[in-house]
Amino acid sequence: MKIANETKVGILAAFSIALLIIGYNFLKGNAIFSNETVLYAKYSRVDGLNVSKPVLINGYQIGRVDKLQLQPDGTILATLKIKGKYEIPTNSVARLESIDLLGSKAIIMALGNGKIYAKDGDTLNANVAKNLMEAVQPVQKKAELIIDKMDSILTSVNAIMNPDFQKNVNKSFNSIAATLGSLESTSKKVDHLVGSEGTRISAILANVESISKNFKDNNVQINAIMKNLNTATDQIAAANFKQTIDNANKAMNELQGVVSKINNGNGTLGLLINDTKMYDNLNNASKNLDNLLIDLKENPKRYVHFSVFGGGNKKDK
């Protein structure tokens, strides 16, 4: 039976289309004739993740990323196609990680320990691992701190290498050496003193110990004596204060009595203050005495008679 050319062309075209579809899916990583399990994972961000990126378990590829879809809440839903049948626990984590220094991404499947396994269409837990730059940032900050400290250390070293500083350090060491020498000399003197006066020091310590023991043994009596002293001191202070107050009250009463007598005109001072006649008499007597003294100065012969040779006395006789 002869096949028509049109039939041959149709068969060839169909075979070419099928081959093209198979080749396209092969290049995309889709297995046309193999059994695949479809799983899903939702990520907050997918830096560097593209379709056809591998899904790995311990470095072994078990599938690939088939689709990436942006969800209304801003997350990205990744469709993972797993080739063959693998027991993946439902508590496994599909972690997005960098697989090289260039930042190429892949889905690393961290298998859980559950006994229930994921089925076709299940959604796995997902997270995003830190990329290289994010992982390096803490180290970079620590390195910057270390560099700053190294700079401070180098600055200090430069200051130490300064000749003036070295001279000061040498002087300090010399002073320290001299001080240590003095301490050593003092220590030797103390050792000699302790050796030569050891007996006396032992006796002094024994006396101090004896005194301490006496104080301890007579602690009750000492406390009683101190209590009695405190009581006596309080009584003396109270007695002296009371006596002082009594004397002050007595003096005030006597002063008040004197003032009352003066106000009542009793006594000379009272009469002098309250009796105007007595005051006038005293005033007149004072004036008369003053006039007498003036006249005595002006006319002394009127009151005093004397002779140089004593003749006057004989004549009077």
Automatic annotation (TrEMBL):
InterPro entries: Mce/MlaD (IPR003399), MlaD_Phospholipid_Transporter (IPR052336), T_SNARE_dom (IPR000727). The chain crosses the membrane at residues 9-27. Residues 163-225 form the T-SNARE coiled-coil homology domain. It comes from the Bacteria. Residues 238-299 form a coiled coil. The keyword Ribonucleoprotein does not apply. Keywords: Coiled coil, Membrane, Transmembrane, Transmembrane helix. PANTHER family: INTERMEMBRANE PHOSPHOLIPID TRANSPORT SYSTEM BINDING PROTEIN MLAD (PTHR33371:SF4), INTERMEMBRANE PHOSPHOLIPID TRANSPORT SYSTEM BINDING PROTEIN MLAD-RELATED (PTHR33371). This is Phospholipid/cholesterol/gamma-HCH transport system substrate-binding protein. It comes from Pedobacter nutrimenti.
